Amino acid sequence: MAGSNFIDYVKFCSRSGAGGSGSVHFRREKHVPKGGPDGGDGGRGGHIILRGNSQLWTLLHLKYKKHVIADKGNNGEGGRRKGSDGHDVVLEVPIGTVAKVAETGEFRCEITEHGQEYILTKGGRGGQGNDHFKTSTNQTPHYAQPGEEGIEEWIVMELKLLADVGLVGFPNAGKSTLLASVSAAKPEIADYAFTTLIPNLGVVDYRDGKSFVMADIPGIIEGAAEGKGLGLRFLRHIERNSILLFLVPADAEHIGEQYAILLDEIKRYNPELLDKRRILAISKADLLDDELMEALKPEIPQGIPYLYFSSVTGFQLPALKDLIWKALQ
């Protein structure tokens, strides 16, 4: 994923089309005196529709589209001819896109399948022609129904990546190195904080042709809930993960304390994330020997499966895959 091309948040004004007005018309033909009302109905206004597309992975194509406007329906005509419906506007979005109303935060829809469609903003209904209003006591109605106005609203769309495993850790914990070691992904790797500025996905091959998807998100620091570092905006990408893989480096001051800080920041973002299965992976194990691993045991939190590994030497990487696969099953 190129950093400048990955957009996971857009806001735009969505305006559906107004319905066409019904027609006030009377049948006038040769040898048909006083033919009566025959005004047709107006056409429906155009909808704004979201459609899932598995070939898309970013909302970049919508970043500069601040106003999405559908056509209005055409007016009805004589001879009970209905006006044509307004042209619908179809916005193709990646799988995992969530749409909300900007002002209230009201949830509208979530696109989870290729080809799935959802009417985001409905077009106005067409008005009825005067043919509908004729009665035995009002045989020549000189009025018809106007078309319904379209809807104008501001919409926020967020993209939440779909993956099986989400990597959670401080900057420089080794998340990108792990992803590059077990998949074909090429995340940027360097020895400074916040090398990863956008989420990265990788497909991890397992035994017998099986595989799972791993997501690497930018590092979290203490106080991220208050906006420190890159904040928590990227945590939306692990909301759909089945497993949270916490990475803490072996050279951390205290493994348990770092794990507790990460857990607290996630809880402040969304407490429901704590219901997901968790695994603690201690990276940079090539710095340790058996004696040091035994000495670090008191620092490891209780009740969570853990494993030492090294992405550089490949130490315990097959065992880490086994642990993840077992948890996924």
Automatic annotation (TrEMBL):
Binding sites annotated in the UniProt record for GTP: 169-176, 194-198, 216-219, 283-286, 310-312
A GO biological process held by the record: ribosome biogenesis
Enzyme Commission code(s) on record: 3.6.5.-
UniProt-annotated binding residues for Mg(2+): 176, 196
Function of the molecule: An essential GTPase which binds GTP, GDP and possibly (p)ppGpp with moderate affinity, with high nucleotide exchange rates and a fairly low GTP hydrolysis rate. Plays a role in control of the cell cycle, stress response, ribosome biogenesis and in those bacteria that undergo differentiation, in morphogenesis control.
Similarity remark: Belongs to the TRAFAC class OBG-HflX-like GTPase superfamily. OBG GTPase family.
PROSITE patterns reported for this sequence: G_OBG (PS51710), GTP1_OBG (PS00905), OBG (PS51883)
InterPro entries, per the entry: G_OBG, GTP-bd, GTP-bd_Obg/CgtA, GTP1-OBG_CS, GTP1_OBG_dom, GTP1_OBG_dom_sf, OBG_GTPase, P-loop_NTPase
Primary location recorded for the protein, binned into one broad class: cytoplasm
Compartments (UniProt record): Cytoplasm
SUPFAM superfamilies: Obg GTP-binding protein N-terminal domain (SSF82051), P-loop containing nucleoside triphosphate hydrolases (SSF52540)
Organism: Cyclobacterium qasimii
GO annotations of cellular component type: cytoplasm
Name of protein: GTPase Obg
